[in-house]
């Protein structure tokens, strides 16, 4: 009788498995993760990490604040 009524597959569909695990920050694009981060915030972080010089920092900061 098993051939008349085969057992259904037990793998969950993809949308259910995503709903069960929830959303994570790494699933979102970077633009949405840091939506509240301003250009000045990013500039300060770059300067703190040593990516730009003090002169570059001051020039960019002045440009951001006057535009």
Topology:
Elements: H1 14-21, H2 30-33, H3 39-48, H4 54-66
Helix pairs in contact: 3-4
Descriptive report:
The protein is mainly alpha-helical. The protein has a domain at 36-67. 52% of the residues lie in helices and 0% in strands. It contains four helices and no strands. It has helices at 14-21, 30-33, 39-48, 54-66. Helix 3 runs antiparallel to helix 4. The longest helix is centred in the last third of the chain and has 13 residues, at 54-66. The radius of gyration is 25 Å and the shape is rod-shaped. It starts with 13 loop residues before the first helix and ends with a helix. The mean pLDDT is 77.
Overall helicity: 40-55%
Sheet with most strands: none
What structural class do the secondary elements suggest?
mainly alpha
* Structure summary, number of beta strands: 0
Strand content: under 5%
Number of helices: 4
First and last CA, distance: 78 Å
The sequence of SSEs as H and E is HHHH
Q: Can you give the mean pLDDT? A: 77
Radius of gyration: 25 Å
Poorly predicted tracts of residues: none
Overall shape: it is rod-shaped
Task: Offer a few descriptive terms.
67 residues, 52% helix, 0% strand, mainly alpha
Quick structural summary:
By secondary structure, the protein is an all-alpha fold. 52% of the residues lie in helices and 0% in strands.
